[in-house]
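During the second half of the funding period, the structural biology subgroup turned its attention to how the target accommodates small molecules. The most pressing case was uridine-5'-diphosphate-xylopyranose, which had performed well in the primary screen but for which no bound structure existed. We therefore specified the complex as follows and requested a full 3D prediction, including the ligand pose.
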Amino acid sequence: MAVIALKCPEIEVVVVDISTPRINAWNSDQLPIYEPGLDDVVKQCRGKNLYFSTDVEKHVSEADIVFVSVNTPTKTQGLGAGKAADLTYWESAARMIADVSKSGKIVVEKSTVPVKTAEAIERILSHNNKGINFQILSNPEFLAEGTAMEDLFKPDRVLIGGRETPEGAKAVKALKDVYAHWVPEDRIICTNLWSAELSKLAANAFLAQRISSVNSISALCEATGADVTQVSHAVGKDTRIGPRFLNASVGFGGSCFQKDILNLVYICECNGLPEVAHYWKQVIEMNDYQKNRFVNRVVSSMFNTVANKKIAILGFAFKKDTGDTRETPAIDVCKGLLGDKANLSIYDPQVSEDQIRKDLSMKKFGWDHPGHLQLLSPSAGDIKQLSVVWDAYEATKDAHAICVLTEWDEFKNLDYQRIFDNMQKPAFVFDGRNIVDVEKLRKIGFIVYSIGKPLDAWLKDMPAVA
Ligand code: UDX
């Protein structure tokens, strides 16, 4: 919305939310999310044509176009629990729009929703309307965190789905005109509603599938002596495949991939397509396998026990340049190590201690076993085996091992000699993001494991894992 305000000075943009603390934060110098470049844009536009307000009903009733970007988390209870998207917030937003509207509006689905949500929303709007014409559009967002501003300024494409009626086409054109302020016309794709909704789920599923594919190959590389970086490079040189999104890792995280694939799986099951559902489910199973494999590798390398050993965790966010921890692989890896009684010292440049403690004390929802929640983790304050520090050197001091779980740039250039000198020996580095200079670290004296790379002689001699 801030980018729309920046690029379309004649349009007034009001971001509304029922949460007063959140809106206060948007109106302050300390924005509620960390996103490189966002501060600048908000500061340029706020008070001119960009406003943040809790007066939801007033601004919705005055608007010509309403973008709905409410949460659509995975349902944790009831029908479709563990897979289906929870549309409670969407439904109440639609009811509120219908209640407060006095004039026709274009209602834009921005949240990722199951295919055919627009149809349900349309029914809610038209059942409550007082002769008012609502047009529903689907305009899914493809930005990635950490690069959001770049992605918004220069999107690969903007997708707008609408009804194939004259009114629908008019609404599509109105939204297209907004984006046309800065997006070349050939990058604005117009489709029917269902195609737009499904494209978003499919795009995220394809991206996640690439990571699971390369991660599956990383396991085979370790078993055979191939190097996953070389394999990815060679595979990605094929222009039909392309080089991006082929980095092997400890696993993908983030608020979208798992949620959207589970949603896709559920939709396939509901449409009588169990084989298709099974195919996509495997992408998540491979991701879980990769996280487990990493924990097993750590434990088995360290004489099959990490009990009472200090392990430094470098990075907790689901990727660099964000403070977001939703579905971060660090949660599962840390829980696995805590389960083996390790003492963890965690450092992430952007994630607060509160957030880390909250994430590690939450019950994990077993996506594949909706009826049963996994064992309770100890409550936040009780995790005695856990310390959160504000420096990589502090985290690694007296540690037996380091696990790199987020690819923050600063981890590439640490003084590893100094770190080695202050660690217990043998000193291990388990690089879940393939960012450290393996040869340099081995020369210093570290035993290094890097995902999908030829194994250190030490690790080869350890019992097979996974
Ligand atoms: C994703 C999609 O990219 C975006 O289009 C959509 O709108 C929202 O979901 P995001 O979750 O912000 O964006 O991050 P992304 O860069 O896609 O990374 C997702 C996860 O995959 C991260 O944990 C990242 O570390 C991991 N990843 C990514 C890999 O493990 N290897 C790769 O090669 C790329």
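Two results from this model are relevant to the next phase. Confidence is low (pLDDT under 50) at residues 369-378. The pocket of uridine-5'-diphosphate-xylopyranose is lined by residues 141-145, 204, 207, 211, 245-247, 249, 252-254, 256-257, 318-319 (CB under 6 Å).
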